[in-house]
Each structure stands twice: as structure tokens, then as C-alpha cells.
Design goal:
The structure holds two protein chains of two kinds.
Chain A (H helix, E strand, L loop, with lengths): L23 E5 L7 H4 L4 H4 L34 H9 L6 E4 L13 H18 L7 E6 L5 H11 L5 E7 L12 H9 L4 E4 L19 H6 L1 H14 L2 H4 L5 E3 L7 H15 L10 H8 E4 L9 H10 L2 H4 E2 L21 H16 L5
Helix pairs in contact in A: 5-6, 10-11
Chain B lengths: L6 E6 L8 E6 L2 E8 L2 E6 L13 E6 L9 E9 L6 E3 L16 E7 L32 E5 L1
Antiparallel strand pairs in B: 1-9, 2-3, 3-4, 4-8, 5-6, 6-7, 8-9
The chains are: A alpha/beta, B mainly beta.
Chain lengths: 368, 151
């Protein structure tokens, strides 16, 4: 792989080029059909055991993971076919860019054997480089790391983080210790060095060494899936209050697929408490919600669908969606949102911010 | 105001056995024709949630309303689940099984008609056979009539 230095943030306004962006999808799942595809990139010692990742507590989605109509014509897992992804998503909706976030692999970051988990992350990146990295100029990649092994994660970020088509570091949102902990700071430092945002994605909650949800174990896939946002709330709260964004003022942190509706509550509660308890976190020199708006980015899917559509528009206003929210479909998963029908009708300027401008600015994307 | 419907031959009854479905295009509308336990039903192939191709979804049963920790599986073969989000619709009525948004999918009348050569004005709309099917003759049996959609 050749590496190039990540450019500094540029304005997404491409009027001067005559071309205009219109749709960027920030969560698209490329998949491998067989574990062997990844395992063959493992170092010899680990290769003997193949790909072995932690699973959930016995329940799974009755719908499966993927949409029923996304099985590739040539067989294999949904998300494994470049052609099918173009046909059903990129070409179908005339997308400028899609950010590929992997699939079935994030839980390497909650593996009890942290060295094996880090080796899996690296193997995945190698596989990705071979199969996906140059597959289509509209497909951009995420550099996978195992956050429970920061030292190896840092090596991996420095190894390939400069590649211009790898636009962010990605890791599991499920952890044993909250992501604001200084244990993880080397990862944030390396990502900033490479000019990359750090994204988290759900799926490994309640598996491997990760904590389960605050009240205890969920008893069904339904309960598990509905609680994922709870974990995100705790992660964002820890990132802000423990000073991650004070230490790394360039860091942008992407909360993929963790919901949006909870964010106003957290912003206001943090602000209210900060007024009384600021002395305990003296590094926070501004209201905590300002750090959130500046540093946190949310992806839309699975968008909350309140009884009154206006309520969602109000929530988008509360979280400063014109800065913080980016469209995502989650193709080809069962809970995906359609790029055309997934979101309610938005005011035009906000729609442009959500559908492409925020992502273009975050990932420094220009018309091709 | 009721609109007059037209007859559209879908296929032979033997080509659509119980549990199977066929998706056809009629006047630009995609419609799924289902054989449920020997009876035929047709639904618009659009999920009202996010416009997904509903009729490509899994044909299955569902759990009936029950007390906590009770699971009563029923209606096997009468429910189609949207291929995108798994929303359940009753194939017999087009109604959403749990209807939080008062949703329903348009249904159409389907009949089985005897296959006689004069009545057979066209082939299955989904087949692009260039032959005039009225030229060929086939053994006629009432057991294998034509599935006709009224749209």
C-alpha cells in the first residue's frame, strides 16, 4: 500500500469545480463470506485457530443480520459482493461516497486475548486492502483497531493510517472500561497524528470482555438492540468529562449507529452539573455540550421514528444537527434506513448538511 | 368510486404451489401473488414504511398476543415479513400485524379460471415469450387452471 499524508480539512463547497456532492453514506457494511478469508492473513501461530470471536449470550436477530434481499447473485454473505453493493446502494441512490465500516469483525476488540484480537484487526485491514481498498473510487475504508490493546492499535494506525482512502479509525463501542479512560489515549493521539477521526460502532456489547448494559444483561436481541444507545451515552459522557477533547483538540469522534435522541438530555445534564461541579473537572473550560457539538458526530441510522415527525426535527435542532449529524444507511443490515425514505422531510439547508456536507467536511471529501 | 378491473393471467396454478409466490408487473405496478394453503392472494409489492419490495420478504407465521413468557406460534404461511425491517403483514388482508401506524398494503382479487384456449389471451405477464400461446394447444385440466389477477 502506498501512503499519502492526510490533507488538512478543506471546505466541502465545490462550486468552483462545477461538480457538486449530494449524498455520502457514513455506515456501509462490507463483509467476508468465510472466516478463512480473514484467517489466512493472521500470523502463523494464530492462523492455526482460524477466526474465533466472542458471541452474544445465546440470542440473535430473528431476521438475521442482513436484509433479506441483499444476498449477492453469486452467493456468499450480504455485503460481500462489490457488484451487489453498487447495484443496490451506490448506483441505486447515486452516492458520491460510502464509508465502509466492516462487518462481523469489531468484536476482535473485546477478545479476552488482546494480542489475538489485535492480530485479527490487522488481518482484517490486510484483507480489506486487498479486496476493497481500490475496488471503487466511491468506496472509502475504515482502519480497524482493537481498543483493548492500545499499543498494537497505535502501531496499526501508524502503519497504514496515512493511506488516503482510509478515512477513519474504527473500533467497537463495547468496552470493559469507558472510552474516556487514559488507557485509550494513545489511540486518540495516533489518530490525531494521522489526521483521522475515531469512530465507534455497536455490535459487541455484552460479548467477550465487554461490559453488559448498566442494569444488567438483556434477555433478548430486541432488548439488547434497544439498549445500544445507553452504552453510547456513557461513552460520550466519559470522553467529554475525562478531558479527551481538551487533550486532543483536533480529535473528532464518530458515534455510528448509536442513536441521536438521547443526546439533548446528556448535553443539558452535563451542562447543568458542570455549573455546580466544574471544579472536579477543571480542564473543562466551556460548557460540556460545546465539546459535544464540536467533537462528536452522529450517524442517522437507525433514525428514531417518533409518532410526530416534527419531534425528530426538534431533536435534530437540539443536537445542532447542522454540525453533528451525518447520513448513514447501514446497508445491507436488517435495520437499515433507505436514503430516500428513511428520514422525514428536512428543511433544505439542514438536509444538505446531513446528507453530505458534514461528512465531506469531516472526511475531507471533494467531488471526483 | 370503484374502478373497473382488468384480468391479467399470472401463470398456471401448478406453477404456484402452496407456500410459493410470484411477483408480476401490471401496468407499472409491482404485485406479489401468493398461494397460501391453496388460496390465492395478491399484495402490492411496496412496504408502506420505507417503500421496500415487501413481497420479496419471508413468508412465515407469527406469535399471537399472549401473556408474558407465553409464546403461541400460529398463522404459519399467512404472514409476509418485509425484507428490510421485518415488519409483518397479513397476506390475506394486507394489514400490518401490529398496526401502530394504521398501515395496510393494497390487496387485489385473484381467481383460478379454467384454461381454455379461447380465454387464453396472453401468456404470463412475467414471461417474455414471443410466441402466440393461442397457437399451441395444451391438455386442459381444471386442476391446473390459470391464476388470474384482477387489477
Amino acid at each position: 500500500m502506498t501512503t499519502t499524508t492526510a490533507p488538512t480539512a478543506a471546505s466541502a463547497d465545490a462550486a468552483d469545480s462545477g461538480k457538486q456532492l449530494s449524498l455520502i453514506d457514513c455506515d456501509v457494511h462490507n463483509a467476508f463470506s468465510s472466516p478463512d478469508e480473514i484467517a489466512r492473513y493472521l500470523p502463523k501461530y494464530f492462523r492455526q485457530r482460524g477466526l474465533s470471536l466472542p458471541g452474544r449470550a445465546g440470542f440473535s436477530s430473528p431476521l438475521g443480520v442482513a436484509r433479506a434481499d441483499a444476498v449477492p447473485d453469486e452467493g456468499g454473505k450480504p455485503g460481500s459482493s462489490i457488484a451487489k453493493m453498487r447495484e443496490q446502494l451506490i448506483d441505486a441512490y447515486n452516492m458520491d461516497y460510502v464509508i465502509l465500516t466492516g462487518g462481523g469483525i469489531l468484536s476482535c476488540g473485546v477478545h479476552a486475548e488482546a494480542d489475538y484480537g489485535a492480530a485479527v484487526a490487522r488481518a482484517y485491514n490486510e484483507w480489506f486492502a486487498e479486496k476493497w481498498l481500490d475496488a471503487d473510487p466511491r468506496m472509502l475504508g475504515s482502519l480497524l483497531v482493537a481498543p483493548n490493546n492500545p499499543a498494537e492499535a497505535v502501531k496499526e494506525i501508524r502503519r497504514i493510517g496515512g493511506h488516503e482512502r482510509l478515512v477513519q479509525v474504527i473500533m467497537t463501542s463495547a468496552t470493559r472500561t469507558a472510552l474516556g479512560d487514559r488507557f485509550y489515549w494513545p489511540i486518540y493521539e495516533a489518530a490525531c497524528e494521522m489526521g483521522m477521526p475515531v469512530a465507534v460502532h455497536p455490535g459487541a456489547e455484552s460479548t467477550g470482555i465487554a461490559n453488559t448494559f448498566a442494569p444488567g444483561f438483556p434477555a433478548s436481541y430486541f432488548e439488547w438492540h434497544s439498549n445500544l444507545s445507553q452504552n453510547y451515552m456513557g461513552q460520550v459522557s466519559s470522553l467529554i468529562s475525562r478531558g479527551v477533547f481538551c487533550e486532543f483538540p483536533q480529535l473528532k469522534f464518530v458515534c455510528i449507529e448509536g442513536g441521536i435522541g438521547w443526546a439533548p438530555h446528556l448535553m443539558w445534564r452535563l451542562d447543568k452539573n458542570w455549573k455546580s461541579l466544574r471544579a472536579t473537572t477543571p480542564w473543562l473550560t466551556r460548557p460540556p455540550s460545546e465539546y459535544l457539538v464540536e467533537h462528536i458526530r452522529f450517524t442517522t441510522q437507525p433514525i428514531e421514528e417518533p409518532e410526530k415527525k416534527d419531534h425528530l426535527l426538534q431533536i435534530l435542532d437540539m443536537v445542532h444537527a447542522e454540525k453533528t449529524v451525518m447520513f448513514s444507511s447501514d446497508y445491507p443490515h436488517w435495520d437499515n434506513d433507505c436514503p430516500v425514505h428513511g428520514l422525514p422531510k428536512l428543511p433544505e439547508p439542514l438536509k444538505q448538511r446531513i446528507m453530505w456536507q458534514n461528512a465531506a467536511e469531516l472526511y475531507n471529501l471533494k467531488p471526483r | 368510486m370503484p374502478q373497473t378491473t382488468q384480468r391479467h393471467t399470472v401463470c398456471r396454478a401448478s406453477e404456484l404451489p402452496p407456500g410459493e409466490r410470484k411477483i408480476v408487473e401490471i401496468n407499472g405496478r409491482s404485485i406479489g401473488v401468493f398461494n397460501v394453503h391453496g388460496n390465492y392472494h395478491a399484495l402490492r409489492n411496496i412496504c408502506p414504511h420505507q417503500m421496500a419490495p415487501l413481497c420479496q420478504g419471508k413468508v412465515t407465521g407469527t406469535t399471537l398476543p399472549s401473556k408474558p413468557n407465553e409464546y403461541q406460534w400460529d398463522r404459519e404461511g399467512e404472514i409476509v415479513r418485509c425484507p428490510w425491517h421485518g415488519w409483518e403483514f397479513d397476506i390475506l388482508t394486507g394489514k400490518s400485524v401490529f398496526n401502530p401506524h394504521k398501515l395496510r398494503v393494497k390487496t387485489y382479487k385473484v381467481t383460478i379460471e379454467q384454461d381454455d384456449a379461447q380465454a387464453r389471451s396472453g401468456a404470463c405477464p412475467a414471461s417474455e415469450s414471443g410466441e402466440d400461446p393461442s397457437v399451441e394447444t395444451f391438455p386442459v385440466s381444471v386442476e391446473d387452471g390459470l391464476v388470474v389477477l384482477h387489477v
